[in-house]
Amino acid sequence: MKILNINNLSNKNLNFKRSWQEHKSWGVNIEDGSQSAKIFTFLDAKNVVLEVNRGKNDERIFPLEKKNDGIFEAKLPKDYLKEGDEYQFLIERENGEIQRVKDPYSKKQSSLLGPSVVYNHSAFKWSDFAWKNNPNRISRKADSKNGLTPLDCAKIYELNTATLTNKANFEGVKQELSRIKNLGFNAIEIMPVENTYSYNWGYDGVDKFAPSNFLGGADMLKDLINSAHNIGLNVIMDMVPNHIGVDGSQLQKTGPYSGGSTPWGDAFNYEGENSKYVRDYIVNAALNWIHNYHCDGLRLDMTKFMNSDTTMQQIAAEVNYHFPEAFLIAEDSRSNISVRGDEHWHDWWQPHDQRVTIPLKPNEIGLNESEEIHNQKIDNISHGGVTLSRLGFDSEWDFHFYHTLTKVAYGEADLDALERAIFDSSSRVKYTTSHDETGNMDGTRLVAKYMVPMLKLNENIFLDDKDVQRARDYASLKGDGFSFESALNIVKSQKAQQNAMKLAQMVQNGRIERIMASRRPNEIFANSVLEPMGISKASFISPRKVLNAFSEATRIYRAIEALKYFTPGPVMTFQGEENLDMTKFNFFREFDSIKDEKYLYVEKGYPHGLNAYLDSIMGNQKYSINGKKRMEEFQNLIIDLNSFKKNNSASTVGQINLSNTVKHPQNPTIAMHSKDIASGSETFIISNFSNVDYPVYNIEFPVGKWEEVINTNNEKYGGSGTCQNKEIVLGFGKVDNKKVKSQIALPAKSSVIFKKV
């Protein structure tokens, strides 16, 4: 991984705190009664012409004036362009080479490789004016004076526009907003909508300023966001700053935008030769979603692969300056790296790169007070008030928390690691799964993944010739140092999880229960289910075992969801996981210029095309009466957890009090305490990962009176209803310098949350 190299950036220009007029000047613009065109291209370009084609022999050509650093721009005559006009830039270089390219700042594309389309952002009529002061609005600047909501209180619903509904567009998402709000979420996070050829899961966009026409285009997206605000939902836009999509990009022949190839498409040239305006380009893309689409915050995909801390900080500085209330979330995943970048943390209590989410100081937003393009040279690590080790993001996705809870769900309860993960995660976005852990692996849902070890599927899967060949191809794809045996294990694991998903779907659609009601259920199941799936009959997996595994997996899922919601700071739920929906979520995309994408099948274990997409559309599964009941029960838990998060500030802006942590490794059981000093709110969670119900369990409570508010074994949530605590529990703390235990009921594979009363 490349860390910021100060020497590489010396003698190069930085653009911090640029004027708004400069930000909005790029591309073709027809707003505010004036018209203009501006493009950054190769330094050796000698001519750039704007070509406009209205059809019927109505073609217009307007030359742009050459400035410096590869910039060409022009003021256009009044009414020279009209909305809907198609246009391209013609670039002529010194060697005589001529390229026709779409606008890198294109706001609208009628086709992926075709010309850009003139679009006027100011024509849309917004009605979310009251949102600015709405107390539901999440803001970086939230405080008691403005009454806005801090990011730590975010309850995020991550969604994919193409698959959330069978409408497969922004209008379909709009119709789901009330349901999402009624579940208790206060924000939606929209997976990337950057324009691509056709259906796409989101992370292969090439037009960074143009919402996909396949999803409904700019106006339909604005209508969705406008509607979200008007019912009290925040909107977070997911954007991709780490690469250019593999299909349909023309940036490589537009200018020095490319920084070399990656497995996902070209990287951006953020720190190479002539990179200044490439960094500006991605900064402007971020500002576009906030200004033109009214997004409240941004989530930046896999920022460590940007290989440029400079660019990350520049995004934060410009967003901070122009939109002080907008917030930024990084998916970074760097771990154990010190602020200096040349050594690792040795303290387990700091497993993340602390640079990412340390806020910028006021003097770090800009290099000085004038609103001009600044041309400063970097002489050392701290220059002109900008310390490049501070990136200024407000939060980040917490990989460490996810991986730790996953191990708990698989029966590997390392209580010390869990304590560290909960303590460390307070300001980070916590999740039990996301699009990555589903689509980027094998398309399967969490409950199905948890069923694999319960049914010992990895040990009982047969690999056929096709599987073995895929393992060979996988090892070859990964290259030197990756063994065939390792590839074989991955293929086996994927097949096990995909079969577990099929079994989970059979539970929810009632087929398992129908087989159980037959005369010879085990025999029928072995012949009609296990054998076709490639599962050994000697595994003795029966319909009853499958049903029990589904129940057990759901039970541990409820317990770790409670842990997620108890931990202070923002939380996130991926679409379908709020109610045990068993629709797969695959990696999917369609290509235009690229035809051979065999490596995707080799890596994922399924074709990436139309069928993968259709299988991922929510609502395509049919559920039995009992299946629907299980879904409703799990959804009841999510509703109550969202309500708990909303009404107990100890679980949002509180602090974990490690002195009150109790760990019983032999059980295993852990209890943790959170407190918000300002409000006096206190919460206490006890999680039992064993298979044993404890009608009486002795454990040390913090001092005070405690009331049970969430018990994941409640019948309302699909639990057995045993071991509920209906009476107030007294916590004595220490007496005569010895901790005094209190008695509670503690159900197996469950979490119980108490609040102080």
Describe the structure.
- With 757 residues, the chain is α+β, with helices and mostly antiparallel strands.
- It folds into 4 domains: 6-11 and 128-418, Glycosidases (TIM Barrel, Alpha-Beta Barrel), CATH 3.20.20; 20-122, Immunoglobulin-like; 419-631, no CATH class; 648-756, Immunoglobulin-like (Sandwich).
- The strands form 9 sheets. It has a 7-stranded parallel β-sheet. Strands 23, 24, 25, 26, 28, 29 and 33 form a 7-stranded antiparallel β-sheet that branches.
- Strand 7 and strand 8 form a beta hairpin.
- Helix 12 crosses helix 13 (484-509) and helix 12 (465-478) crosses helix 17 (598-604).
- Residues 1-13, 336-352 and 365-389 have low confidence and may be disordered.
Main sheet characteristics: 7 strands, parallel
CATH class of the largest domain: Alpha Beta
CATH topology of the largest domain: TIM Barrel
CATH level 4 superfamily of the largest domain: Glycosidases
The gyration radius over C-alpha positions equals: 27 Å
Task: Describe the global form.
Answer: globular
Number of helices: 19
Strand fraction:
15-25%
Count of individual beta strands: 33
Mean pLDDT: 89
Short description:
With about 750 residues, the protein is α+β, with helices and mostly antiparallel strands.
